[in-house]
Design brief:
Chain A: GO terms for molecular function: ATP binding; ATP hydrolysis activity. The complex is a heterodimer of chains A (338) and B (348). With 338 residues, chain A is of the alpha/beta class. Chain A contains 11 helices and 11 strands. In chain A, the strands form 2 sheets. Chain A has a 7-stranded mixed sheet, with helices on both faces. In chain A, strands 2-1-4-5 form a 4-stranded antiparallel sheet. Chain A starts with a strand and ends in an 8-residue tail after the last helix. Chain B is of the alpha/beta class. Chain B has 13 helices and 12 strands. In chain B, the strands form 2 sheets. In chain B, strands 6-7-8-3-9-10-12-11 form an 8-stranded mixed sheet, with helices on both faces. Chain B has a 4-stranded antiparallel sheet with strand order 2-1-4-5. The chains are: A alpha/beta (338), B alpha/beta (348). Chains A and B meet through helix 5, helix 6, helix 7 and helix 9 of A and helix 8, helix 9, helix 10, helix 11 and helix 12 of B.
């Protein structure tokens, strides 16, 4: 049995909205509102959802890039939120992040060597004299030439820049890498190369990934387990296969059915579920089930009672979803409401 | 099944012949569009797919003659209803843009003017192209907002772009583009910036409006899923050239060009489990524009490339079905493995 590397309990991230003449906090954006999950050593867990669902905020809160409002984050048996800023800085050796836009997240005025050297120096994991060798090794590992180390970021293509971001994250031998939309900005052919690279590195360095993405094709390919978020809450979570083949939450079903399939004449074409309207504002999220304003199955109960994450006997082990009517929708006794 | 030859039966609404658009830097010329040919049949949708830098957006901007310095349309013909748009004066072009040919862009926030209400922005088209009064134009604008499925259009018409969500803004863009009932709509990555559930809404809206208004669409996208779902014909572009042109069913069922196969393989799918295998990727990356390969543009990355591919540029050959392909494998001059089948490389 592999151990839990990361354990997140009831994580909340409320961003204050200042207003009025005195600049008081008048309200909060409840970006993440009570999220709990675990990530086991060596696995890839993906968090998916649309813009504003809180997936990136969750990733940032775990690394304490923004300190969360409340909750617990336990990493490798240690409570991260109890650490001082200085201790946390040291701890980040084990937790690294790769961002979406490789150009915005690396300093354009530094050469690749300087970028990597800075990371090595801050964490001081490699003696100074060995650093040039380490940098050359890192460059080769991510598929760049060691001779390219003295170039500036603008001399690289988008895919190569993302490789630099990966090399920087790898430089301190982390245990967990949070990949925040790490391949979203890349062209498909380059995206495929970077996905292959990330999978290979995972095997080679026994890395654990928390993969934050909106592209469900990429998620299906890379993940072991999947977490679906909507408006700051987890609506469904489980093994990749059960989420994709046997989704229970109406939102997950709608999300999967909305993706255009690259096949003009699919053998089994599933009826597309169109969601009406947009995601409501996270400032005053809907009462009860947050999805009820767009859910075709919503009833009066959904407007009042917040559903909890729970398993259902039609699910595989470890699969949970938060909907009042999972069973009834599956056996057809609960139909879409007019 | 629709065949690409069906196009030939009727005069297409748009025919682009040997279009060449270049950008001139101090050191060299970048041939962004390098001899592109395609046709858009009436009432149909043509998809133009390719990755960044393939020239798909420049092609669409060239059709409307929106290329700015240091770019220049060097040659070719753009026949819209039989007339060459490259022969028109700027004043004549202004009458066509937004009227007979309209365009929607990827990022609705940057293409809407933040200091005018959406009503004022849609009205502009009516006032300029149809000489309507302000009041009349505003009334029509409200109707257009209703047509594109914006709830309470009477209130929305008075709002500014920042008061709308991303999906709403894209609906406004569509309303604006369709205001004058165009015969051709050019949609440049119209749903790329949107979430999938909103994308599904917008694509459905576009299809529905096409059925009702009978317009032709050029859909520019990098998303092969969007292509499969919305297009009748597809042109795949690579480095400024069309490498394959086929009906959408042929392209996905029986892709001929190694680049098309590579693109399809690179795409992880949410409805297919590949297991723990690596994606079958296209090696390397697009060469820089100052270092264009002499032979086939794709040869340095092509798993099938033979000697001739590196030496000579293949022509665009027409097949019996009317599909077009730019690859040596399908010619008599092919000097590689005669048994080669590009489709054997397909992994999905």
């Amino acid at each position: 049995m592999t151990k839990d590397l990361l354990k997140v309990t009831d994580l909340k991230q409320y961003f204050p909205i200042k207003g009025g003449m005195l600049g008081r906090t008048v309200n909060h954006v409840k970006a993440v509102d009570g999220v709990s999950f675990t990530v086991k050593e060596g696995e890839t867990v993906s968090i998916v959802g649309e813009s504003g669902c809180g997936k990136s905020t969750t990733g940032r809160a775990i690394l304490r890039l923004d300190d969360p409002t409340s909750g617990e984050v336990e990493f490798d048996g240690e409570d991260l939120l109890g650490l001082s800023k200085k201790e946390m800085r040291k701890r980040r050796k084990d937790l690294q992040i790769i961002f979406q836009d490789p150009y915005a997240s690396i300093n354009p005025r530094q050469t690749v060597r300087q970028i990597l050297e800075e990371a090595l120096e801050i964490q001081n994991t490699v003696p100074k004299k060995d650093r040039p060798d380490k940098i050359a090794e890192l460059m080769e590992t991510v598929g760049l030439g060691a001779h390219q180390a003295d170039r500036f970021p603008h001399e690289f293509s988008g895919g190569q820049r993302q490789r630099i971001g990966i090399a920087r994250a790898l430089s301190v031998d982390p245990k967990l890498i949070v990949a925040d939309e790490a391949v979203s900005a890349l062209d498909v052919s380059i995206q495929a190369q970077v996905i292959n690279l990330m999978k290979r590195l995972q095997r080679e360095f026994s890395l654990t990934y928390l993969f934050i993405a909106h592209d469900l094709g990429v998620v299906r390919h890379i993940s072991d387990r999947v977490i679906v978020m909507y408006l700051g809450k987890i609506v469904e979570m489980g093994d990749k296969k059960s989420i994709f083949d046997n989704p229970h939450h109406p939102y997950t079903k709608a999300l999967l059915s909305a993706i255009p399939v690259p096949d003009p004449a699919p053998e089994k074409k599933e009826e597309r579920v169109f969601l009406k309207g947009d995601v409501p504002s996270p400032i005053d999220p809907p009462q009860g089930c947050r999805f009820h304003t767009r859910c075709p199955f919503a009833t009066e109960k959904c407007k009042v009672e917040t559903p909890e994450l729970r398993p259902e006997d039609t699910m595989e082990e470890g699969h949970v979803a938060a909907c009042h009517y999972m069973k009834e929708i599956i056996d057809g006794t609960h139909k879409p409401q007019q | 099944m629709v065949k690409a030859t069906d196009i030939l039966d009727e005069q297409p609404i748009l025919e682009v012949k040997d279009l060449q658009t270049s950008f001139f830097t101090e050191k060299f010329e970048v041939k962004a569009v390098d001899g592109v040919n395609f046709a858009v049949p009436k009432g149909k949708t043509l998809g133009i797919v390719g990755e960044s830098g393939s020239g798909k957006s420049i092609t669409s901007l060239s059709v409307l003659r929106l290329i700015q310095d240091p770019g220049k349309i060097k040659g070719g013909e753009i026949l819209f209803k039989g007339e060459n748009l490259l022969d028109k004066s700027e004043a004549q072009m202004r009458k066509i843009r937004g009227n007979e040919i309209s365009m929607i862009f990827q990022e609705p926030m940057t293409s809407l003017n933040p200091v005018y209400t959406v009503g004022q922005q849609i009205s502009e088209a009516y006032m300029i192209h149809q000489n309507m009064s302000k009041k009349e134009a505003m009334l029509r604008s409200t109707e257009m907002l209703e047509l594109v499925g914006i709830p309470s259009p009477k209130q929305r018409v008075k709002q500014y772009p920042h008061e709308l969500s991303g999906g709403m803004r894209q609906r406004v863009m569509i309303a604006m583009a369709l205001a004058c009932d165009p015969e051709l709509l050019i949609a440049d990555e119209p749903t790329t910036a949107l979430d999938v559930t909103i994308q599904a809404q917008i694509l459905e809206l576009m299809k529905d409006l096409q059925d009702r208004l009978g317009m032709s669409i050029i859909m520019i996208t990098h998303d092969l899923g969007v292509v499969a779902e919305t297009c009748d014909y597809v042109a795949v572009m690579y480095m400024g050239k069309v490498v394959e042109y086929a009906s959408v069913t042929d392209l996905f069922k029986n892709p001929k060009h190694p680049y098309t196969v590579g693109l399809l393989n690179s795409l992880p799918r949410h409805d297919v489990d590949l297991g723990d295998v690596e994606l079958n990727v296209i090696k390397g990356s697009v060469p820089s524009p100052d270092n264009i390969p002499t032979g086939c543009r794709f040869a340095p990355r092509c798993p099938f490339a033979s000697d001739i591919c590196h030496e000579k540029l293949p022509h665009l050959e027409q097949s019996e079905e009317g599909n077009q392909i730019r690859c040596w494998i399908y010619t008599d001059e092919w000097d590689g493995d005669p048994e080669v089948n590009v489709n054997d490389q397909r992994s999905t």
